């Protein structure tokens, strides 16, 4: 019983240790909205979900490097983690420099819709019982069928790494950023992208 209690405590300490504090954003090398850190098998992402399926103005390759060059002291704030029990962890980050946020700027400029900035915990709750969720699970099942001998990693559900109140405050700012982009017809909200928005 004592050994089991120690094991549980060690697991909890390992999980808690990944609830990282902010770190210099300059430690990450970016490819589009994905960030990599040498010697770290964690994938850091400026988007909380929809990495490959979202509508985009296709300006991220210009907007992100430009913002990064203008904010050399920006911090990366880990927001949520998926794949915690696997070899390939994904961490959604906010890029923050004082009161400025790259995540909000991307939405404000109409590069992406605000929905891609919802974290994995929030998206997981919203997608339950939807066709998107069924498609994702079918994709996982198909992948396992194609590779039956591949070892299966135990993947924990997504976990938020910041206080809920901080996340809720971000959602309010996110709504304002998207409202501004829509009003100004910026990026994906311009008439050019009307058809892609299904309007």
List the helices and strands and how they pair.
Blueprint: H1 2-17, E1 23-24, E2 29-31, E3 34-36, E4 43-45, H2 60-70, E5 75-82, E6 90-97, E7 100-101, H3 102-108, H4 120-127, H5 131-146, E8 159-160, H6 164-184
Parallel strand pairs: 4-6
Antiparallel strand pairs: 1-5, 2-3, 3-4, 5-6, 5-8, 6-7
Helix pairs in contact: 3-6
The CATH architecture assignment turns out to be Beta Barrel
Which oligomerization state do the chains in this entry correspond to? Answer: single chain
Low-confidence stretches: 1-19
Can you tell me the CATH topology? OB fold (Dihydrolipoamide Acetyltransferase, E2P)
Characterise this structure:
The chain is of the alpha+beta class and about 200 residues long. The chain has a single domain (about 20-195), classed as OB fold (Dihydrolipoamide Acetyltransferase, E2P), CATH 2.40.50. The chain is built from 6 helices and 8 strands. It has helices at about 1-15, 60-70, 100-110, 120-125, 130-145, 165-185, and strands spanning about 25, 30, 35, 45, 75-80, 90-95, 100, 160. Strands 1, 2, 3, 4, 5, 6, 7 and 8 form an 8-stranded mixed sheet that branches. α3 (about 100-110) packs parallel to α6 (about 165-185). The longest helix is centred in the last third of the chain and has 21 residues, at about 165-185. The chain is globular. Residues about 1-20 have low confidence and may be disordered.
